[in-house]
Amino acid sequence: MKIINWKRSTLKNAIAALAACGVVVSGNHSVVQADVTLDFTGLAGNGTGIPDTYGDNLAGAPNIDVTWNSPDDQSTADGWDSYNSWDGRGEVGQCDFNQVNPMTITLTPDSGFGAFVTSFFLDEFVGGGDSIIQWNLPGTGFSGTWDEFGDAMGGDGGRTLITTGMTAGDAVAGPLVLELTLDSGFGSYQALDNLTFGQVEIADCLVGDINLDGDVNLQDVNPFVNLITGGLFQCEADVNADGSVNLSDVAPFVGLLSGG
What we know:
4 helices
């Protein structure tokens, strides 16, 4: 690895453009596993908390742990409940926004792996009012709005398939959060179903070589700035190897450039 001489003032001027922002970790991916779909079958009765181990390390995504709002909590207090006959549409994960708003699901891949979410259903039980849910995968650039009145059955219950747009190439090496925020509607009439996600193995990379030319030098500064401020990423920019990319990577990046 060749590191050229550099001027600290040049680097400081470039780094000054950085601002605190979300992180998406993509980059060199390989070995894509089959997608996993959680359909909430086989859980306990209606209104029973979803076990925090539900969805962990399944065939197709054996290196991903799933957390339902709060780690190690399978009570109804965390807002995620099982429901076995939801408005005639079978088993779902009920979202009790009266308990927690926003609701979250966190996918945490093992070191060397990344996680991605491709799709899920949002559903309203009849009588739930005009449910509007903002869904977001923070730090990835993928988000959207579900308006049950316009997207499902005119305000009379129903479901919609949400396709996130995320693919294996967008996989996050570090916790990936699906966040659901209820903006309107009655707070326990909403549900999630058929959550589909997957994992990829993330290939080794030369840390600091942001422009992928085989060297770590000042040529990598502008791409480093652009990736973070633009909400994009590759594994070469995760300089402190903590599974995410943020301003904490700046100091070790400076160290690489200075030969430290």
